[in-house]
Design brief:
There is one protein chain. By secondary structure, the protein is of the alpha/beta class. It folds into two domains: about 5-130 and about 280-300, Rossmann fold (3-Layer(aba) Sandwich), CATH 3.40.50.720; about 130-275 and about 310-335, Dihydrodipicolinate Reductase, domain 2. The chain is about 35% helix and about 25% strand. It contains ten helices and 16 strands. It has a seven-stranded mixed beta sheet with strand order 3-2-1-4-5-6-15, sandwiched between helices. A seven-stranded mixed beta sheet has the order 12-11-7-10-9-8-16. Helix 1 (about 15-25) packs across helix 9 and helix 4 runs parallel beside helix 5. The structure holds nicotinamide-adenine-dinucleotide (NAD) and (2R,3S,4s,5R,6S)-2,3,4,5,6-pentahydroxycyclohexanone. (2R,3S,4s,5R,6S)-2,3,4,5,6-pentahydroxycyclohexanone binds near residues 158, 173, 177 and 273.
Length: about 325
Protein backbone atom coordinates (compact mmCIF):
# COMPACT_ATOMS: atom_id res chain seq x y z
CA UNK A 1 0.00 0.00 0.00
CA UNK A 2 1.33 3.48 -0.90
CA UNK A 3 2.28 5.64 2.12
CA UNK A 4 0.26 8.83 2.51
CA UNK A 5 2.28 11.95 1.71
CA UNK A 6 2.53 14.62 4.42
CA UNK A 7 0.47 17.62 3.27
CA UNK A 8 2.46 20.80 3.85
CA UNK A 9 1.24 24.41 3.98
CA UNK A 10 3.77 27.22 3.48
CA UNK A 11 3.28 30.75 4.85
CA UNK A 12 5.49 33.38 3.22
CA UNK A 13 6.63 32.70 -0.32
CA UNK A 14 9.51 35.17 -0.65
CA UNK A 15 13.17 34.16 -1.06
CA UNK A 16 13.38 31.19 1.24
CA UNK A 17 9.66 30.35 1.34
CA UNK A 18 9.59 29.82 -2.44
CA UNK A 19 12.73 27.67 -2.15
CA UNK A 20 11.11 25.56 0.56
CA UNK A 21 8.01 25.12 -1.62
CA UNK A 22 10.23 23.82 -4.43
CA UNK A 23 12.13 21.57 -2.03
CA UNK A 24 8.98 19.98 -0.62
CA UNK A 25 7.40 19.65 -4.07
CA UNK A 26 10.43 18.49 -6.05
CA UNK A 27 13.53 17.73 -4.01
CA UNK A 28 12.60 15.62 -1.00
CA UNK A 29 10.35 12.61 -0.44
CA UNK A 30 7.33 11.91 1.72
CA UNK A 31 5.48 15.21 1.33
CA UNK A 32 3.65 17.51 -1.04
CA UNK A 33 2.61 21.15 -0.87
CA UNK A 34 -1.14 21.63 -0.59
CA UNK A 35 -1.65 25.25 0.54
CA UNK A 36 0.20 28.56 0.44
CA UNK A 37 -0.28 32.05 1.78
CA UNK A 38 1.60 35.27 1.24
CA UNK A 39 0.38 38.84 1.68
CA UNK A 40 1.76 39.24 -1.85
CA UNK A 41 -1.16 37.22 -3.16
CA UNK A 42 -0.13 37.08 -6.81
CA UNK A 43 3.21 35.53 -5.99
CA UNK A 44 1.58 32.87 -3.82
CA UNK A 45 -1.02 32.14 -6.51
CA UNK A 46 1.63 31.75 -9.21
CA UNK A 47 3.68 29.42 -7.05
CA UNK A 48 0.62 27.43 -6.03
CA UNK A 49 -0.17 26.89 -9.71
CA UNK A 50 3.32 25.52 -10.29
CA UNK A 51 3.12 22.87 -7.55
CA UNK A 52 -0.57 21.93 -7.64
CA UNK A 53 -1.40 23.69 -4.35
CA UNK A 54 -4.11 26.17 -3.39
CA UNK A 55 -3.31 29.80 -2.54
CA UNK A 56 -5.44 30.64 0.49
CA UNK A 57 -6.77 34.09 1.46
CA UNK A 58 -5.24 34.09 4.97
CA UNK A 59 -2.47 32.37 6.95
CA UNK A 60 -5.06 31.15 9.48
CA UNK A 61 -6.89 29.28 6.72
CA UNK A 62 -3.67 27.49 5.76
CA UNK A 63 -3.10 26.48 9.38
CA UNK A 64 -6.65 25.25 9.99
CA UNK A 65 -7.12 23.63 6.58
CA UNK A 66 -8.13 19.95 6.73
CA UNK A 67 -5.78 19.51 3.72
CA UNK A 68 -2.73 20.64 5.71
CA UNK A 69 -0.92 18.34 8.17
CA UNK A 70 2.16 20.51 8.87
CA UNK A 71 3.28 24.07 8.23
CA UNK A 72 6.45 25.90 7.18
CA UNK A 73 6.63 29.54 8.29
CA UNK A 74 8.86 31.71 6.09
CA UNK A 75 7.35 35.13 6.63
CA UNK A 76 9.41 37.97 8.16
CA UNK A 77 10.46 37.30 11.78
CA UNK A 78 7.90 39.61 13.42
CA UNK A 79 5.10 37.22 12.34
CA UNK A 80 6.81 34.00 13.45
CA UNK A 81 5.52 33.79 17.03
CA UNK A 82 1.84 34.55 16.36
CA UNK A 83 1.78 32.06 13.46
CA UNK A 84 3.65 29.39 15.45
CA UNK A 85 1.16 29.84 18.31
CA UNK A 86 -1.69 29.25 15.86
CA UNK A 87 -0.03 26.05 14.61
CA UNK A 88 0.38 24.80 18.20
CA UNK A 89 -3.28 25.61 18.93
CA UNK A 90 -4.22 23.58 15.83
CA UNK A 91 -1.99 20.70 17.04
CA UNK A 92 0.10 20.78 13.83
CA UNK A 93 3.90 20.40 13.51
CA UNK A 94 5.65 23.54 12.32
CA UNK A 95 9.05 24.37 10.87
CA UNK A 96 9.56 28.03 11.69
CA UNK A 97 12.36 29.87 9.92
CA UNK A 98 14.89 31.61 12.15
CA UNK A 99 14.49 33.45 14.43
CA UNK A 100 11.76 31.67 16.40
CA UNK A 101 10.82 35.25 17.32
CA UNK A 102 12.65 38.56 17.56
CA UNK A 103 11.86 38.99 21.29
CA UNK A 104 12.53 36.76 24.28
CA UNK A 105 8.95 37.30 25.51
CA UNK A 106 7.46 35.95 22.28
CA UNK A 107 9.78 32.91 22.35
CA UNK A 108 8.69 32.26 25.93
CA UNK A 109 5.03 32.39 24.88
CA UNK A 110 5.72 29.72 22.23
CA UNK A 111 7.48 27.49 24.76
CA UNK A 112 4.65 27.90 27.26
CA UNK A 113 2.00 27.04 24.65
CA UNK A 114 3.94 24.06 23.33
CA UNK A 115 4.43 22.62 26.81
CA UNK A 116 0.76 23.20 27.64
CA UNK A 117 -0.19 21.31 24.46
CA UNK A 118 1.77 18.31 25.79
CA UNK A 119 3.43 17.63 22.39
CA UNK A 120 6.63 18.89 20.83
CA UNK A 121 5.56 20.48 17.57
CA UNK A 122 8.06 23.24 16.80
CA UNK A 123 11.33 23.05 14.87
CA UNK A 124 13.40 26.18 14.17
CA UNK A 125 15.18 26.64 10.82
CA UNK A 126 18.78 26.54 12.07
CA UNK A 127 19.79 24.46 9.06
CA UNK A 128 23.54 24.66 9.64
CA UNK A 129 23.02 21.71 11.98
CA UNK A 130 22.26 19.75 8.76
CA UNK A 131 25.35 20.91 6.88
CA UNK A 132 27.88 18.14 6.22
CA UNK A 133 30.85 20.38 7.11
CA UNK A 134 29.44 21.47 10.48
CA UNK A 135 28.42 17.87 11.26
CA UNK A 136 31.97 16.74 10.54
CA UNK A 137 33.26 19.35 13.02
CA UNK A 138 30.73 18.25 15.64
CA UNK A 139 31.82 14.60 15.24
CA UNK A 140 35.46 15.60 15.65
CA UNK A 141 34.58 17.38 18.86
CA UNK A 142 32.34 14.71 20.37
CA UNK A 143 34.74 11.87 19.50
CA UNK A 144 37.51 13.66 21.40
CA UNK A 145 39.66 13.79 18.24
CA UNK A 146 40.80 17.37 18.93
CA UNK A 147 40.64 17.28 22.72
CA UNK A 148 38.72 19.95 24.60
CA UNK A 149 37.35 22.95 22.69
CA UNK A 150 39.20 26.14 23.65
CA UNK A 151 38.40 28.63 20.90
CA UNK A 152 35.76 28.89 18.18
CA UNK A 153 36.40 31.26 15.27
CA UNK A 154 33.64 32.06 12.78
CA UNK A 155 33.42 34.20 9.68
CA UNK A 156 30.08 35.19 8.17
CA UNK A 157 30.30 37.27 5.00
CA UNK A 158 27.40 38.23 2.79
CA UNK A 159 28.00 39.92 -0.57
CA UNK A 160 25.60 42.76 0.24
CA UNK A 161 22.44 43.79 2.06
CA UNK A 162 19.68 46.33 1.38
CA UNK A 163 20.03 49.86 2.80
CA UNK A 164 17.35 49.03 5.38
CA UNK A 165 19.74 46.55 7.06
CA UNK A 166 21.03 47.83 10.44
CA UNK A 167 23.99 47.03 12.72
CA UNK A 168 21.51 45.34 15.07
CA UNK A 169 20.19 43.18 12.23
CA UNK A 170 23.70 41.87 11.66
CA UNK A 171 23.13 40.19 15.05
CA UNK A 172 19.49 39.11 14.75
CA UNK A 173 19.52 38.10 11.08
CA UNK A 174 23.08 36.86 10.46
CA UNK A 175 25.06 36.17 13.68
CA UNK A 176 22.07 34.30 15.12
CA UNK A 177 23.24 31.36 12.96
CA UNK A 178 26.67 31.38 14.66
CA UNK A 179 24.95 31.68 18.04
CA UNK A 180 23.02 28.48 17.38
CA UNK A 181 26.06 26.80 15.85
CA UNK A 182 28.21 27.67 18.88
CA UNK A 183 25.61 26.30 21.35
CA UNK A 184 25.19 23.14 19.26
CA UNK A 185 28.89 22.50 18.60
CA UNK A 186 30.05 23.23 22.15
CA UNK A 187 27.05 21.72 23.92
CA UNK A 188 26.88 24.65 26.33
CA UNK A 189 25.42 28.11 26.61
CA UNK A 190 26.81 31.53 25.75
CA UNK A 191 27.12 33.65 28.90
CA UNK A 192 28.40 37.03 27.70
CA UNK A 193 28.78 38.99 24.50
CA UNK A 194 30.60 42.06 23.29
CA UNK A 195 30.56 43.68 19.84
CA UNK A 196 33.40 45.76 18.43
CA UNK A 197 33.23 47.82 15.27
CA UNK A 198 36.43 49.02 13.71
CA UNK A 199 37.27 50.47 10.33
CA UNK A 200 34.22 50.70 8.09
CA UNK A 201 33.89 49.40 4.57
CA UNK A 202 33.08 52.21 2.12
CA UNK A 203 30.45 49.89 0.64
CA UNK A 204 27.99 49.97 3.57
CA UNK A 205 25.17 52.47 4.12
CA UNK A 206 26.42 55.22 6.51
CA UNK A 207 24.23 54.01 9.40
CA UNK A 208 25.55 50.42 9.27
CA UNK A 209 28.67 49.33 11.20
CA UNK A 210 30.23 46.85 8.83
CA UNK A 211 32.22 44.70 9.47
CA UNK A 212 31.70 43.99 13.18
CA UNK A 213 33.49 41.61 15.49
CA UNK A 214 31.41 39.71 18.04
CA UNK A 215 33.21 38.15 21.01
CA UNK A 216 31.22 35.68 23.07
CA UNK A 217 32.14 33.44 25.98
CA UNK A 218 30.63 30.07 26.78
CA UNK A 219 29.86 28.61 30.21
CA UNK A 220 33.22 26.79 30.42
CA UNK A 221 35.10 29.83 29.09
CA UNK A 222 35.44 28.92 25.39
CA UNK A 223 36.00 32.19 23.50
CA UNK A 224 33.87 32.51 20.36
CA UNK A 225 34.77 35.14 17.77
CA UNK A 226 32.45 36.00 14.89
CA UNK A 227 33.42 38.34 12.09
CA UNK A 228 30.18 39.49 10.52
CA UNK A 229 30.67 41.41 7.28
CA UNK A 230 27.48 41.86 5.31
CA UNK A 231 28.88 43.91 2.41
CA UNK A 232 31.88 41.76 1.61
CA UNK A 233 31.06 42.09 -2.10
CA UNK A 234 33.14 39.15 -3.41
CA UNK A 235 30.67 36.35 -2.54
CA UNK A 236 29.00 34.45 0.29
CA UNK A 237 31.64 33.06 2.60
CA UNK A 238 31.02 31.17 5.83
CA UNK A 239 33.96 29.63 7.67
CA UNK A 240 34.43 28.07 11.06
CA UNK A 241 37.24 26.62 13.12
CA UNK A 242 37.37 25.02 16.54
CA UNK A 243 40.76 25.06 18.21
CA UNK A 244 40.96 22.21 20.67
CA UNK A 245 43.50 21.21 23.32
CA UNK A 246 45.10 18.66 20.97
CA UNK A 247 43.94 19.58 17.47
CA UNK A 248 41.84 21.73 15.20
CA UNK A 249 38.70 21.05 13.17
CA UNK A 250 37.49 23.50 10.56
CA UNK A 251 35.19 24.36 7.74
CA UNK A 252 36.66 26.45 4.94
CA UNK A 253 35.32 28.65 2.22
CA UNK A 254 33.17 26.50 -0.08
CA UNK A 255 34.79 25.56 -3.39
CA UNK A 256 32.28 24.99 -6.18
CA UNK A 257 34.96 23.83 -8.60
CA UNK A 258 37.29 25.66 -10.91
CA UNK A 259 38.09 26.15 -14.55
CA UNK A 260 41.21 26.94 -16.51
CA UNK A 261 41.27 29.37 -19.38
CA UNK A 262 43.91 31.59 -20.98
CA UNK A 263 46.59 30.28 -18.56
CA UNK A 264 44.51 31.27 -15.53
CA UNK A 265 42.85 28.92 -13.04
CA UNK A 266 39.58 30.35 -11.67
CA UNK A 267 37.90 28.94 -8.58
CA UNK A 268 34.16 29.45 -8.04
CA UNK A 269 32.51 30.14 -4.70
CA UNK A 270 28.84 30.52 -3.70
CA UNK A 271 27.14 33.81 -4.54
CA UNK A 272 24.64 33.54 -1.68
CA UNK A 273 23.29 31.44 1.21
CA UNK A 274 20.84 29.70 -1.13
CA UNK A 275 23.72 28.05 -3.00
CA UNK A 276 26.09 27.55 -0.05
CA UNK A 277 23.53 25.82 2.14
CA UNK A 278 21.34 24.21 -0.57
CA UNK A 279 22.15 20.67 0.59
CA UNK A 280 21.66 21.62 4.23
CA UNK A 281 18.19 23.10 3.58
CA UNK A 282 17.23 19.95 1.69
CA UNK A 283 18.49 17.73 4.51
CA UNK A 284 16.70 19.91 7.06
CA UNK A 285 13.34 19.61 5.27
CA UNK A 286 13.76 15.87 4.69
CA UNK A 287 14.65 15.34 8.34
CA UNK A 288 11.65 17.44 9.42
CA UNK A 289 9.32 15.31 7.28
CA UNK A 290 10.87 12.06 8.54
CA UNK A 291 10.73 13.35 12.12
CA UNK A 292 7.02 14.10 11.84
CA UNK A 293 6.40 10.55 10.57
CA UNK A 294 8.32 9.26 13.61
CA UNK A 295 6.58 11.69 16.02
CA UNK A 296 9.84 13.53 16.74
CA UNK A 297 11.32 17.03 16.49
CA UNK A 298 14.84 16.34 15.20
CA UNK A 299 16.38 19.76 14.57
CA UNK A 300 16.64 22.84 16.75
CA UNK A 301 13.60 23.03 19.03
CA UNK A 302 11.80 26.02 20.51
CA UNK A 303 14.05 26.04 23.60
CA UNK A 304 17.02 26.37 21.21
CA UNK A 305 15.10 29.19 19.51
CA UNK A 306 14.60 30.95 22.86
CA UNK A 307 18.28 30.62 23.86
CA UNK A 308 19.44 31.94 20.47
CA UNK A 309 17.13 34.96 20.72
CA UNK A 310 18.39 35.67 24.28
CA UNK A 311 21.98 35.84 22.99
CA UNK A 312 21.00 37.80 19.86
CA UNK A 313 19.17 40.36 21.99
CA UNK A 314 22.21 40.65 24.26
CA UNK A 315 24.33 41.23 21.14
CA UNK A 316 21.90 43.95 20.02
CA UNK A 317 22.35 45.64 23.43
CA UNK A 318 26.11 45.24 23.06
CA UNK A 319 25.99 47.02 19.68
CA UNK A 320 23.80 49.78 21.05
CA UNK A 321 25.66 50.38 24.33
CA UNK A 322 29.20 49.37 23.39
CA UNK A 323 29.42 47.33 26.62
CA UNK A 324 29.85 43.64 27.43
CA UNK A 325 26.41 42.19 28.07
CA UNK A 326 25.71 39.17 30.30
CA UNK A 327 23.31 36.50 29.02
CA UNK A 328 21.18 34.60 31.55
CA UNK A 329 21.65 30.82 31.47
CA UNK A 330 18.24 29.20 31.32
CA UNK A 331 17.39 25.83 32.75
CA UNK A 332 16.20 23.54 29.96
CA UNK A 333 12.71 22.26 30.80
CA UNK A 334 12.52 18.44 30.98
CA UNK A 335 9.99 18.66 28.11
CA UNK A 336 12.90 19.54 25.77
CA UNK A 337 15.45 16.96 27.00
P1 LIG B 1 11.45 37.78 1.95
O1 LIG B 1 11.18 39.21 2.26
O2 LIG B 1 12.09 37.41 0.65
O3 LIG B 1 10.10 36.93 2.06
C1 LIG B 1 9.16 37.12 3.06
C2 LIG B 1 7.79 36.90 2.45
O4 LIG B 1 6.82 36.97 3.49
C3 LIG B 1 7.42 37.94 1.39
O5 LIG B 1 6.99 37.29 0.23
C4 LIG B 1 6.32 38.76 2.06
O6 LIG B 1 5.35 39.22 1.13
C5 LIG B 1 5.72 37.71 2.98
N1 LIG B 1 5.00 38.27 4.12
C6 LIG B 1 5.11 39.48 4.70
N2 LIG B 1 4.23 39.58 5.72
C7 LIG B 1 3.59 38.40 5.78
C8 LIG B 1 2.57 37.90 6.63
N3 LIG B 1 2.06 38.62 7.61
N4 LIG B 1 2.12 36.65 6.40
C9 LIG B 1 2.62 35.91 5.39
N5 LIG B 1 3.59 36.33 4.56
C10 LIG B 1 4.05 37.57 4.76
O7 LIG B 1 12.34 37.25 3.18
P2 LIG B 1 13.21 35.92 3.23
O8 LIG B 1 14.61 36.25 2.93
O9 LIG B 1 12.53 34.85 2.48
O10 LIG B 1 13.14 35.63 4.80
C11 LIG B 1 11.98 35.10 5.40
C12 LIG B 1 12.36 34.46 6.74
O11 LIG B 1 13.29 33.42 6.50
C13 LIG B 1 13.04 35.42 7.71
O12 LIG B 1 12.66 35.08 9.02
C14 LIG B 1 14.52 35.13 7.52
O13 LIG B 1 15.29 35.37 8.68
C15 LIG B 1 14.50 33.65 7.22
N6 LIG B 1 15.63 33.24 6.37
C16 LIG B 1 16.35 32.18 6.78
C17 LIG B 1 17.44 31.77 6.05
C18 LIG B 1 18.27 30.63 6.53
O14 LIG B 1 19.42 30.54 6.13
N7 LIG B 1 17.73 29.75 7.35
C19 LIG B 1 17.78 32.43 4.86
C20 LIG B 1 16.99 33.50 4.47
C21 LIG B 1 15.91 33.88 5.22
C1 LIG C 1 19.90 35.42 5.94
O1 LIG C 1 18.66 35.82 6.47
C2 LIG C 1 20.19 34.04 6.38
O2 LIG C 1 19.60 33.48 7.24
C3 LIG C 1 21.45 33.50 5.83
O3 LIG C 1 21.65 32.16 6.17
C4 LIG C 1 22.55 34.35 6.44
O4 LIG C 1 23.81 33.91 6.01
C5 LIG C 1 22.37 35.80 6.04
O5 LIG C 1 23.39 36.57 6.67
C6 LIG C 1 21.01 36.31 6.48
O6 LIG C 1 20.84 37.63 6.02
Amino acid sequence: MATELLRVGVIGTGNIGADHVDRVANQVSGARVTALFDVATERAAELAGQVGAVAMPTASEVISSPDVDAIIIASPGEFHAPLTLECIAAGKPVLCEKPLAPTVEECESVIAAEQASGRRLVQVGFMRRNDAGYRHMKNNLSSGAIGEALLLHCEHRNPDVPDSFTSQMSMTDSVIHEIDTARWLLGEEIVRVRVISGKQTPNAAPHLHDPQLVIMESQSGVLVSVEVFVNAKYGYDVRCEVVGSSGVTSLGSQDLGNFVSDTRRTATMPANWRIRFGDAYRAEIQDWINGIAAGQVRGANSFDGLCATHVAQAAVRAVTTGTTVEVPVLEQPAFYH
